[in-house]
Amino acid sequence: MSKRSPHSCATEEGPQAGDSPTLDYPHGGDAADSIDAPVHPTSLGHGTLIGKGQGSILVVASTSKQVRVAIVDDHESVRLGLQAAFANAGFDVVETAASVSELVEGLDSREVDVVVLDLSLGDGSSVTDNVKAVQATGSAVLVHSIADRVASVREALAAGAAGVIPKSSATSTVIAAAETVARGEVLNNLEWASAIDADRDFAKAQLGRREREILHLYASGLPLKLAAQQLGIGYSTAREYLDRIRAKYVEVGRPAPTKVDLLRRAVEDGILPGLEPDGDDSA
Q: In the chain, at which residue ranges do the beta strands (DSSP E only) sit?
């Protein structure tokens, strides 16, 4: 059976017996040159093989759609570079922005398949808030970050990002990662594993003295308002400390969204002594 380029389109009238089909190859040359030509998944539909033997042809349906991508980075040069790379690769670059809030406003309810998100934005926004805001638009999140920011990467993954790709990666690697995430798959790579299995420096949340005091009182059962009064600080300040505590536990892969979770973390880290981590109420 003759091999045909998947880019080739059949005419309405098939080849006559004994004739070799005449097909156009996008890269020039003949069939032998195009047999192993890469087919970009952003532009290829489903193929149907028609006929047998040398007269067989591959009809490519035009039912596929472009992968829709958006880019968030506070460096214009990075945005422009990624925009050009994705456009050249056949993606539909729907929006680029310097912040997540700018992205959401620019999308104006339009949906994209994947957002390539820088972790360290200059607007002071948090990693978790940014990931959640992007997910609220219906898009998957691909983190594009400097590889040594393990804590921020862990926070992004805990918030629901589908993968992480270092900024040092080749453009082709970033594009392939975006395709994977856009298909609804999780990107399993070295950076993902490194973030999940980070060194032991991240085993415990690095809490300051005041944060430990707030956690001790609040996790012991005191309402936050009373804990603030006991420490001589305002309620809003106590709330800020509590938010920081939760963020730090997310960073080390040990999220504590509820008061019970905070109690467990306080016991596990020795902030509340006298209880075993797995103990019950009677311990």
A: 47-50, 57-60, 68-72, 92-97, 114-118, 140-145, 163-166
Q: Are residues 58 and 77 in the same domain?
A: no
In whole angstroms, what is the distance from residue 58 CA to residue 1 CA? 12
Task: Flag whether 139 is in a domain.
Answer: yes
Q: State the Cα–Cα distance between residues 173 and 188, nearest whole angstrom.
A: 13
Tokens of 215: 């956690």
Cα gap 132→233, rounded to integer Å: 30
How far is the CA of 281 from the CAs of 128, 173, 254, 270, in angstroms?
32, 51, 22, 17
Task: Evaluate whether 103 touches 130 at the Cβ level (below 8 Å).
Answer: no
CATH code of the domain in which 113 resides: 3.40.50.2300
pLDDT of residue 167: 85
Walking along the chain (283 residues) 10 residues at a time, the average pLDDT comes out as 42 44 40 38 42 48 72 94 95 95 93 92 90 92 78 77 85 92 77 50 70 90 91 93 90 81 80 48 34
Q: Give the number of domains in the chain.
A: 3
CATH number at residue 228: 1.10.10.10
> Which residue range forms the structural domain that includes residue 44?
1-64
Alpha helices in 110-164 (DSSP H): 127-135, 150-159
Rounded to whole angstroms, how far apart are CA atoms 158 and 140?
Answer: 14
Unique residue bearing structure tokens 């033997």:
53
Residue 7 placed within a domain: yes
